[in-house]
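Homework-ish question, so no full write-ups if that breaks the rules, but can someone show me the predicted structure for this set?
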Amino acid sequence: DAKTTQPPSMDCAEGRAANLPCNHSTISGNEYVYWYRQIHSQGPQYIIHGLKNNETNEMASLIITEDRKSSTLILPHATLRDTAVYYCIVRVNTDKLIFGTGTRLQVFP
Amino acid sequence: ETGVTQTPRHLVMGMTNKKSLKCEQHLGHNAMYWYKQSAKKPLELMFVYSLEERVENNSVPSRFSPECPNSSHLFLHLHTLQPEDSALYLCASSQVDTVTRGYTFGSGTRLTVV
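A: Not a homework solution, just the prediction itself:
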């Protein structure tokens, strides 16, 4: 079972920041937070992952609360191509990757 | 191109046919996976291969038969499928003994059973 809770859908205006929340209140100390996205009918694409500290790469930023019970994926300047389903997943590095229902992000012009 | 290649991209087959899906990874990973994604459903993990041995079979019907001849190749053999087996079948690979980016997915095979 997926151990995360995400809103089913969100909208974002093009050029604005998209902030996607994820609750993982039962996360264990050795579990990482991973984010993937799936553009329609394609395979999921890795975005970012983190353990405790905030992380940033060329695609996004990941903000993890101090108690690690929730996190936020930030797309700083959303484009139409960022329209996708975004999945938040918690796991230890040797675990299977189990997907929930994710958040469907719609970026509009 | 993600480093995981799936063929064919699309497949239409009758319920009495036998076909195979192929997956190849060029990333040097030591584990491979088959997922199924039916319309409007989350991805379902079907099979896990680690170091070429099947380590997990998530109650998948026997009409789906995986094969992993080496660490770079994974097949899914299909026979006597049902229309409800129509779905997007995704292959993924990973390196299980390190903290990495997790899984790398292929683009999938869109299967239609008629």
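Now go work out the reasoning yourself. Hint: Residues 15 and 81 of chain B are 5 Å apart (CA to CA).
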